[in-house]
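Forum: Protein Structure Q&A
Topic: Joint prediction for protein chains with partners

I've read a bunch of threads here and the consensus seems to be that you should model interacting components together rather than docking separate models afterwards. I'd like to see that in practice. Below is the full input, 1310 residues plus whatever partners are listed. Could one of the regulars post the assembled result?
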Amino acid sequence: MSLNTNRVGNHPGSGHDPSQSTTISIPFSPETMHEVCRPPAKTTFQKLRHKLSEVFFPDDPLHRFKNQTCANKIMFALRFVFPIFEWAHSYNFGLFRSDVVAGLTIASLAIPQGISYAKLANLPPVIGLYSSFVPPMIYAVLGSSKHLAVGPVSIASLVMGTMLNDAVSYSSDPVLYLKLAFTATFFAGLFQASLGFLRLGFIIDFLSKATLVGFMAGAAVIVSLQQLKGLLGIVNFTSKMQIIPVLSSAIEQSDEWSWPTIVMGFGFLACLLTTRQIGLRKPKLFWVSAAAPLASVILSTFLVALFISKLPNIATIGQLHKGLNPPSSNTLYFHGEFLAVAVKTGAVTGLLSLTEGIAVGRTFAALKNYQVDGNKEMIAIGLMNMAGSCSSCYVTTGSFSRSAVNENAGGQTAMSNIIMALTVLVTLLFLMPLFKYTPDLILAAIIVTAVIGLIDYQSAFGLWKVDKLDFLACLSSFFGVLFVSVPVGLTIAVGVSIFKILLHVTRPNTSVLGCIPGTQIFQDLVRYRDAHRVPSFVILGVEAPIYFANCTYLQERIFRWLREEEDWNAANNGSLLKCVIIDMTAVTAIDTSGLAMVNELRTMLEKRSLQLVLVNPTGSVMEKLHQSNNLASFGPNGLYLSVGEAVADISSSWK
Amino acid sequence: MSLNTNRVGNHPGSGHDPSQSTTISIPFSPETMHEVCRPPAKTTFQKLRHKLSEVFFPDDPLHRFKNQTCANKIMFALRFVFPIFEWAHSYNFGLFRSDVVAGLTIASLAIPQGISYAKLANLPPVIGLYSSFVPPMIYAVLGSSKHLAVGPVSIASLVMGTMLNDAVSYSSDPVLYLKLAFTATFFAGLFQASLGFLRLGFIIDFLSKATLVGFMAGAAVIVSLQQLKGLLGIVNFTSKMQIIPVLSSAIEQSDEWSWPTIVMGFGFLACLLTTRQIGLRKPKLFWVSAAAPLASVILSTFLVALFISKLPNIATIGQLHKGLNPPSSNTLYFHGEFLAVAVKTGAVTGLLSLTEGIAVGRTFAALKNYQVDGNKEMIAIGLMNMAGSCSSCYVTTGSFSRSAVNENAGGQTAMSNIIMALTVLVTLLFLMPLFKYTPDLILAAIIVTAVIGLIDYQSAFGLWKVDKLDFLACLSSFFGVLFVSVPVGLTIAVGVSIFKILLHVTRPNTSVLGCIPGTQIFQDLVRYRDAHRVPSFVILGVEAPIYFANCTYLQERIFRWLREEEDWNAANNGSLLKCVIIDMTAVTAIDTSGLAMVNELRTMLEKRSLQLVLVNPTGSVMEKLHQSNNLASFGPNGLYLSVGEAVADISSSWK
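Posted by a regular:
Agreed with the consensus. Here's the joint model:
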């Protein structure tokens, strides 16, 4: 059949010649008409089961167990619970050699970072080393990532330090502070493992990449400024974490500035930043930046030890006791006034460290083309933190910088974590007295070097270029963290992200479609300049689920499109509208408010002598149209599988 | 060209014969290949402007002013601000006669209801009459609905009574209570008018119909039980609003039960409920239910006046002073400890009464085929409440029951509101002493009769049948109101509604598509039993925006579909997969996390020697793919306008 169609006049006044009109042919024959099917009938229980399995088990974790012998099932179950069995049986000397090199390399980074990050959390330096021993051993058995290097990380350390410090300061009551830190670690682990067990891992997806870019940059700025304490040699520094008190404290305490500390601190900082740049620019020289922190620690310790009599003002770590992790399960704190602080700190640090660990694990898995199971990773990270809390460790997770070094140094399996842990063990048992003269300034310099890489201004610029609302989420978490606090910053950013989803649903895109000549393809008239209007029809595309939040808007918008199309017709060819077709392909769901709206729309259009036709509703929409008896009121000519069939059949019925 | 396709074997073990295989032809010729267009280029400012105009001005409110003379523009502006000018110039005696009948009818309902609802808000009865005089006059000038009958309503009265009573009780400090009531009314009006002025009317859409069904039923149950005070003649009744204290108070105070009150109260209640049923069953007899309240008031007042000496236990309204609304603007309260209560009460009652007013206005507009402008209605309702708060009125809005009576009685314009207000004026000036012996029990019976209609169990059953999550929202607001409080119940219900949107985005529907023989239509294999797989291709449909909240899920789900398709192929024909096509028609938006996911997916599939092809991305997705340089990496064979073209072109390139 052939139809006379009208050339699109996009926007009013866009300069098109409205009189231009061509005759195009839509390929169509009545015998090719197709019915719109409903999904296979299911009981409420089946639907609920399907929905729950999609929500909680989208990856079908038990698919490997299907159609297997009993022995195989047991083996798979063992591997499922302890991923170490995935690789242990095929482990060989070649892999071991690679892992030893990688393990020693990350240990050289983990020891100075462990000490530094513990200071960031206001904890004694040795806790950082304890935390680099027990958790990596446990992760090596339970974790499914081959490249994740486990230990304390800057963000979680910072957040724990800030949140606990608001309740009690380490200097005034060190025993209580330690108790709270271990308890918070326990709750962080419990929270992480529960998310994994309950398969609620998707909750961390709500901390979108945009949010994290802003959050990490804000945290990096705050942490770097906090290090002015060590780099300037200030003794009485503020313990607040907002940018204004930190900066004013650094300036007000200028009488405490120690020039030898400043010269040495900024000198080492410059060296570390230079080696970091070298590592970034030439990936082959990654070992320069990987070895730099340990080298700086050794060098600065020597310098201070040699000149200690002449430089009494330089603060050092001081005497550290040799020995393994003491048990701490007896210090866990499950009652009393500070329990709420510990639980809240645990939840926030748990969530943040989980997000970092999972993101890092996924990044390297994608790079090396294997898959990590998010929920299993959560259980592994959670259990290692729970075990850590009983052995004097604080919150740990997979660190981005050390995992990158691990991968660069050739790490092949989780064995590199074991090698690292054993190296830390040797340090704890024999090398602790060597840190006596290690200056605080070098720890500050190491922290600044580590966190400065978290300021990802290129990603932020990318967000601005591509998605302004993502950029807004990024900015709000950045400024929230900088000026208010970590939980507030994160809450605002998650709020902005959710607002974005709601805005998208509340104000969806709608468009008038036209036919692309010679095809049955109907597309947006504004976007496809060769698409033509079909006379007597208004074909509308709706790009959203029809929900309570948008059904009023959609009704108003549809009537506005109708008015505009009527105006266009009156101005151009005087033809009358007879039929409104709604292309439901992108209407992914409908609720009871939406169903009422569709029904009301049909009645209102009927009163204006216009027929309403629905095209290609998706499965769930089709089901609900049927259940609510809406389908029946549309009649046989109210529903088609494609716009082309609808146009052809309805216009032939007018003849 | 023709392709060999495979019959769908839907679910594993669904009993299909997998060897069944047919050769179908997909109509296609290379010269009909179409390019995917990007939307016309726009600057950031243009995009922002378009987005803002869609968010705030979807109805294009100024369209009537386009291309008009200056005089016309002034006339339209006048009508725009004062809708009374829309109908005043063509008003005639016929319309007036209808409006007088309707106005007198709703006045006969409004007077007893006004007195009753004022008691519900713990206010003196006369405030209810004041509130039926000033606000209707103002609405008649500013409102755009022809059928809305304005005055106090049960829900807003109840909520105001509850929330203010938590702070201060009328019996202990009547002056402060009145001050707070007028102040709350002022803030309710301010809030309503601001929503209209700022065009934020869509906020009330978040109180979905499902939520309101549950909320109104819960409120109706509570209100009805509260009326046991009047119906049983209890003097010391609880002022709490949860179901348990109300019920236990009614039972514990059984020594205060007054049998004459009970007999008379339940007798009138039975009469009123019977007339209500008559009105519902036979719409022509609506006047029976409309006249019943006034008739009952008159009859019961007579009875009490006659037998007052023998029935001293029956509580009556008592002496009411004649006279017009006294000014109350001097009592508004803008500082001090109770300001927060007044603002909060104003916001909640304002939101609820606005929702009711707008919903009622829209219902009758749809019935009579005219449109009301939501934002203008909000301004009208807001201004009438602000004016009311300065003339001793409390919160008013459009009442469902009185509007229905208005429409039934033949009301044609807002003049019926003026007639009603004038009738109330006469009552205030001359008839007040007649209410001296009106018993409280009749007010209780009128309230029960009015609110019992709010329990819409049929709608609740419809929700259960069609949409389980809507039913859950309904239930949570019902039980929240019944057992906790009005704001908590509403917050939970809105939370459930938002959760539903987030769940839909977090776990979207995906499906494997197949070709319907003889067409270029590709549809879900599970739903369309005659659709066929295309060998070497996996064609996936994704029905959601690709956002941070679902990109991990989608990636996992796509790999699961791939695994399942590979298993199916291995079991049935041994053919190898070469190409993954994603139909993006229903992907209505994408954010930076989604773009990163698509890019990662492409890289991961490439490592498995699979080509990734996108089909028909929507305008905004196309734009972002381009801006993020993702398009370039897809190359010339990575993007098609339709699945048919993609399949045909790619499979021809393999030959």
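The radius of gyration of chain A is 32 Å.
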